[in-house]
Design brief:
The chain contains 2 helices and 10 strands, in the order αβββββββαβββ. The chain folds into 2 domains: about 35 residues; about 120 residues, no CATH class. The longest helix is centred in the first third of the chain and has 31 residues. It is α+β, with helices and mostly antiparallel strands. Strands 1, 2, 3, 4, 5, 6, 7, 8, 9 and 10 form a 10-stranded antiparallel sheet that branches.
């Protein structure tokens, strides 16, 4: 092979090698001038660790459902309306209620031939100025037992909005407990409130 060919090939290799060195030096100099590290995108975007309430889906409420009440059959009481006050002990969800907030419960005993006792309760529950149960005239009903003396009411609606169109309530003035729950399809979203009853009138 001609010596000139070897010389030309050698010059070509030296030229390529020189370009690589020059490119590396330039890249290093550019990176050294930058104060910020180069971004590295693994795809899929950054995870969101911010606040907000997850969509828990219809029929699901925060925390477990309370144990069901045993509601005895009682005669229709002579006092048809009761006023109850409860102090909030715990809150889950985004409702504008905090521990220490007061809940005001109005319970009306209404005749209903389709339930065994012959009546049921219509209730409206307002906590910290927000109505959380019984917002309209057509909801807020549940089976109950009511007593004249001593004044007492116990009853519950175990289903949340995804199942029956309104929130769940468990009310037991004998045990001094009030539990409100709803799922993500409800007017106030998914929440759970437990309160201690302090007054029954």
């Amino acid at each position: 092979m001609s010596p000139m060919i070897w010389i030309a090939a050698g010059c070509g290799l030296l030229s390529i090698f020189g370009c690589c060195i020059a490119s590396g030096v330039a890249f290093y100099a550019y990176g050294a001038q930058s104060e910020e590290p180069m971004p590295f995108d693994m795809g899929g975007g950054q995870p969101d660790f911010g606040g907000g309430t997850p969509n828990l889906g219809g029929g699901i409420a925060p925390g477990p459902a309370p144990s069901p009440l045993v509601i005895p059959m009682t005669p229709m009481p002579s006092i048809r309306t009761r006023s109850i006050v409860a102090s909030v002990q715990s809150v889950a969800g985004t409702v504008p209620v905090t521990p220490g907030s007061l809940c005001y419960v109005i319970v009306e005993v209404k005749p209903e031939a389709q339930v065994p006792a012959g009546f049921w309760c219509k209730s409206t529950v307002t906590c910290n100025g927000t109505v959380l149960f019984g917002e309209t005239e057509t909801n807020g009903f549940f089976p109950c037992a009511a007593y004249d003396s001593p004044a007492a009411v116990l009853g519950e609606d175990a289903e949340t909005t995804g199942s029956d169109g309104d929130a769940s309530i468990q009310l037991d003035t004998n045990r001094r407990t009030l539990i409100l729950r709803d799922d993500a399809t409800g007017l106030r979203g998914a929440f759970r409130i437990e309160a201690q009853i302090t007054e029954v009138h």
